[in-house]
Amino acid sequence: MNKFxxxxxxxxxxxxxxxxxxxxxxxxxxxxxxxxxxxENAKYTAVDFIVVAAYGIVLGINxxxxxxxxxxxIMTMIILMxxxxxxxxxxxxxxxxxxxxxxxxxxxxISSLMIFMExxxxxxxxxxxxxxxxxxxxxxxxxxxxxxxxxxxLDKNQVITHITLVSISEKTIYGxxxxxxxxxxxxxxxxxxxxxxxxxxxWVAYNTQNMNILTNPPKxxxxxxxxxxxxxxxxxxxxxxxxxxxxxxxxxxxxxQLFTEKGLNTDSLKLNLYYKFAYSISVIxxxxxxxxxxxxxxxxxSIVKNASVTFSISIVYLGVQxxxxxxxxxxxLPPAATFLPIIVFLxxxxxxxxxxxxxx
Length: 360
Hints:
Blueprint lengths: L2 H36 L7 H37 L2 H7 L4 H41 L10 E8 L5 E8 L4 E10 L5 E13 L2 E11 L6 E10 L3 H5 L12 H14 L4 H27 L9 H27 L10 H19 L2
Helix pairs in contact: 1-2, 1-4, 2-4, 2-7, 2-8, 4-7, 6-7, 7-8, 7-9, 8-9
Protein name: LptF/LptG family permease
InterPro entries: LptG/LptF_permease
Keywords: Cell membrane, Membrane, Transmembrane, Transmembrane helix
């Protein structure tokens, strides 16, 4: 890495830190204002209030990082263009293509950190924030292994399954009802299980009732204890909530496996999983795309015009990515289509870098 590349990298990181601090300050104020309603009539100190607002920053910062990177790139290139340092670098034989590598490398690091936050930091901060809010409001603190309730499944054999409660901390599933149809689609039998308990490496069903409702009177078979060979329940107790918006990538992948085994549609789960990665990768795409667009050696160069055009393009890219996500959620496009804007804009950015490198 030559000296000018090092200078460019330091300048970008400096601008990235400045913009990040500004965004964090605004986000903290927004989070603090939102907490005023949440903590109404609650008992807390000023330190508690600051910490809870800081937790809110961590939960929302990933959504803002791509725009922070976009603004940082624009600021960096404006400084280099205005001081004619980039022009001088080109005059002495510098390459715009080679100059892009340090920025792309930083983009890879930032994207990796965003993915790490989705896997590790954000889930832990979400639990810590909820526990702290509960303490302030005088409510009991939940553990990190909650569960969910009143869940329905429809598998590939058209068997309807209702689960009353999944307790992750107890490794127990309560109130399982299976409604099994015959070949005509009419419910022919019902299986009721009082609870499923994970004992050692096996699932044990207690008080199972198999009811044939086509006979009169219904025929009922009761099994007090039955060891099951079905391992799909292992995945179910690893999911802490039914709110898809807060699923971690690990939980999404686990549910995809479970739904696949049950013959259920996994498109919405795959879409959310793919979008988490696609949005993180957007940092790299924005760097590759905005870096060559923000370079302009024209005599009619205008800082305001150049910055406006470059920033608008970043908005267009993120907008297109969101549109493809919406098309995927509506079933018009497959879940993997969320990566299509990444591929298209990546090639556009690489072409522009190549084109700018050839320009004399």
